[in-house]
């Protein structure tokens, strides 16, 4: 900033003075007089009113969030159901395709047994993994006997 100091600048007129509007009777009041005239009870009433206003605003905000979520849930559920159905159909197609592709090498019965057996092993693996996580959650909640 080029070496200028705050002392180089002239103060603004009226700087450092607090001016409070005059009361209705026309007599000017200083800030100190107004602070002294204010009571603790008035401050508490103002604080309570502000708290009520804040609680009302927060309640309205949370209500609007809940309504937005409630309005969105049916669409989310429908999209999730359609996605799950399409994924299930794709897995059926993959299973049939693997059985047909492996049939020349293992016969129809052999390829069916291999593909279904591998799917069964994968299902057991993921079921066991889910059970371990479920037991960890139950243990964290203090229900260790829920096995």
Descriptive overview:
The protein is an all-alpha fold and 147 residues long. Helices cover 73% and strands 0% of the residues. The protein has 2 helices and no strands. The longest helix is centred in the middle third of the chain and has 101 residues.
Briefly, what is this?
With 147 residues, this protein is mainly alpha-helical.
Tally the beta strands.
Answer: 0
Radius of gyration: 37 Å
What's the mean pLDDT score?
Answer: 83
Q: Estimate what percentage of residues fall within beta strands.
A: under 5%
Shape call? rod-shaped
The H/E string reads HH
Number of helices: 2
Structural class: mainly alpha
Summarize the amount of helix as a percent range: over 70%
Distance between the termini: 72 Å
Largest pleated sheet: none
Low-confidence stretches: none
Task: Please render the helix and strand layout as text.
Layout: H1 31-37, H2 40-140
Key descriptive features of the protein:
73% helix, 2 helices, single chain, 147 residues, mainly alpha
């Amino acid at each position: 900033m080029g070496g200028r100091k705050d002392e180089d600048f002239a103060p603004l007129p009226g700087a450092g003075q607090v001016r409070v509007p005059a009361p209705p009777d026309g007599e000017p009041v200083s800030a100190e007089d107004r602070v002294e005239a204010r009571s603790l009870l008035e401050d508490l009433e103002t604080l309570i009113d502000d708290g009520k206003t804040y609680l009302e605003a927060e309640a309205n905000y949370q209500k609007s969030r809940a309504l937005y979520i409630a309005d969105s849930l049916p669409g989310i559920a429908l999209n999730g159901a359609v996605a799950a159905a399409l994924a299930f159909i794709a897995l059926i197609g993959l299973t049939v395709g693997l059985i047909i592709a492996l049939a020349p090498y293992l016969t129809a019965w052999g390829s069916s047994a291999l593909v279904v057996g591998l799917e069964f092993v994968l299902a057991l693996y993921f079921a066991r993994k889910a059970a371990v996580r479920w037991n960890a959650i139950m243990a964290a909640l203090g229900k260790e006997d829920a096995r």
